[in-house]
Amino acid sequence: MKILIADDDPQLVRALRVTLTAHGHDVFSAQDGAAAVTIAADTHPELVLLDLGMPRLDGVRVIEALRGWTTAPIIVVSGRNGGADKVEALDAGADDYITKPFQIDELLARIRALARRATTHSTSPLVTFGDIQIDLSAKTVTRAGALVHLTRTEWRMLEFLAKNPGSLVTRQTLLKGIWESEQVSDSGYLRLYMSQLRRKLEAEPSHPRHLLTEQGMGYRLITD
Predict the structure, then answer these.
(1) pTM exceeds 0.85, yes or no
(2) Which residues have C-beta within 8 Å of that of residue 5, sequence separation ≥ 6?
(3) Fold exhibited by the domain 124-221
């Protein structure tokens, strides 16, 4: 996989380059936001690791520039751990967010998850986890082969997560997508519908393994 690292910390870039190359990836790097956009246009990376606080062009602006022409997964790797920064980056088009300092094994797992998502999304309408099978084409869900009845809203919420397995889907994205309005605010609706989905799809709804909450940000479907 071709990976672009956009970060102005040369030590971090060097360490990531060594690790990612050892795992068989082709690595490119950029030390500022403007260079990241230019290098991405030249190399067409399959995944981007992006810091937010870079010179010349802020990371969120880089995400917006890239999303103008590519759907390649973008993982923000940033020292900013505020909820507002994360939501802004994810709403701009990032697929995931990991806070510095981080464990390299976690980053590699996030990369693998996004790579699987890209492959699954392009080849099959079926998403499976545990004994659950979601058919995005037929708009059906089965559990151990038996059809599971979902309300329209439950299906819409699950559909957003299933189309982006492994990735964080923000509350704002869900609210806008489900109710098709910028004016809807979350007054507990999402928690309610997520609770209902877990009751129908998780083996232990009170200890979910697949339908996970990212506190203050949104939800994530884990298919492993």
Answers:
(1) no
(2) 13, 16, 17, 20, 27, 28, 29, 30, 49
(3) Arc Repressor Mutant, subunit A (1.10.10)
